[in-house]
Amino acid sequence: MKGLLLILLSVNRISAKGRKAFTLIEVLTSSFIVMYLFLAAWSMYMIGWRWWHEVAPIAECQRIARVGLSSVIEGTRAWQETISSVTYNGKSGIAWSTLTKADTTANPAFVTPVLSVPDASSPGVYHRIDYKLEPDSVASNGRSFYVSTDIATNTKAIYEDGVKIAATQINATQGDVVLSFEKPDATYPNLIKVTVTVTKSVPGTRFENAPVTIIYSDFINLKNV
For the chain, what is the total number of helices (H) and then of strands (E)? Predict the structure, then answer.
């Protein structure tokens, strides 16, 4: 008890210059405030760090799925073709495709699109589509979409291919991506469902290596020509 009293007296003593020193209560209060601010800053840092590491992979999957779906449906480039003095304008996606090719004598039985590379575990689901754009008597406007692996990076991505273009990797679609096509209702043969599925592991602290799966789908009603 005497030791505690001596400490309190020494802390409250008047300095040689006549100025009071900090009391023990003031020192403890200041230390508590500093510790509180430090813990608050550390908590904000940890919350932000966890949020970033958990949300960033989800946002990346959403971006890949969104870009992939819009590229397949709307296309990645403008398209123009002159056939029999008639110029056709459009884009290269399957939304600009046609169901049948009734305008030609060169290929009267040509039907598009063609779904191929069937899914082994899901009957009726395919991973490649081959189609044509606006009327073309020699089918030179054929196009394809599928997923392939980039040999240089060993990363999967969505590719666009065609008669007049070389196989081209669609930017911002690299990742664990799956592209699938199906005809959900046989009554409507011109209705195609397009699905892009992207999977990624989350390296965050709360969900260590937990898989995140983003699925974007849309339906395309092909034009009849």
Answer: 2, 10
Which element (helix H / strand E) includes 137?
none
186: pLDDT strictly greater than 70: yes
Give the E-state strand segments of 135-190 in sequence order: 142-150, 155-162, 168-169, 176-182
Identify the pLDDT of residue 210: 75
pLDDT tens sequence across 24-49: 777 788 888 888 888 888 877 777 77
H, E, C per residue of the chain: CHHHHHHHHHHCCECCCCCECCCHHHHHHHHHHHHHHHHHHHHHHHHHHHHHHHHHHHHHHHHHHHHHHHHHHHCCCEEEEEECCEEEEEECCHHHCECECCCCCCCCCCECCEEEEECCCCCCEEEEEEEECCCCCCCCCEEEEEEEEECCCCEEEEEEEECCCCCEECCCCCCEEEEEEECCCCCCCCEEEEEEEEEEEECCCCCCCEEEEEEEEEEEECECC
pLDDT of residue 80 exceeding 70, the answer is: no
DSSP 3-state percent helix, strand, coil across the chain (nearest 5): 30, 35, 35
Give residue limits of the domains in the chain. Answer: 49-221
pLDDT of the residue at 108: 54
Report the percentage of the chain scoring pLDDT > 70: 69
CB 22 within 8 A of CB 11: yes
In sign, the C-alpha dihedral spanning 120, 210, 179, 170 is: negative
